[in-house]
User: What shape does this take?
Amino acid sequence: MAQFFEVHPDNPQQRLLKQAVALLQKGGVLAVPTDSSYALVCHLDDKAAADRLRQIRGVDDKHHLTLLCRDLSELASYARVDNRQFRLLKSATPGPFTFILEASKEVPRRLSHPSRKTIGLRLPEHASLQALLELHGAPLLATTLIPPGESQALNDAADIRERFEHQIDGVIDAGACALEPTTVIDLSQGDAEVVRRGRGDPARLGM
Assistant: This one.
């Protein structure tokens, strides 16, 4: 049965988020709000939790998972970026963008794309999620919460709890969030390429 953490959208209660972090550190999978719908998250270095996350989401190892980071310095630890790419990242973060980047050696091989050695990274602009990341002290492995066989992401905590309470370990409810996916920008092949248009405006990156 999933634990339900109802937090203030702008000033989330630290006590509740610490309980959520404890679940993550025990191998839990949580549903958390972002600036572009809910996501499933787990501890980066927990293979069993990552396998559960993929199973709940209904995706295989070829599906790009994303690292949710607190800031650009953390992001740079997990991806290879040149000065031009860093300037572009700085102009678009935090915000509803996911960047496909060349994975560094810090990223476990099982978490990067099996053929391309790339990883998705993003810096979300959401108070509750930023506070959770700060308390956790490290990036979280994430995937958009789209139920298997469906195409629409979920954005209502009560609905998520009802549908997934026996599959996940916790839900952070900070109110309904956006219902539009991130804009995905591929930077792994040199020039920036828009892979998916979503909530983030590519014009913010000069594209």
Q: What stands out?
A: The longest helix spans residues 14-25.
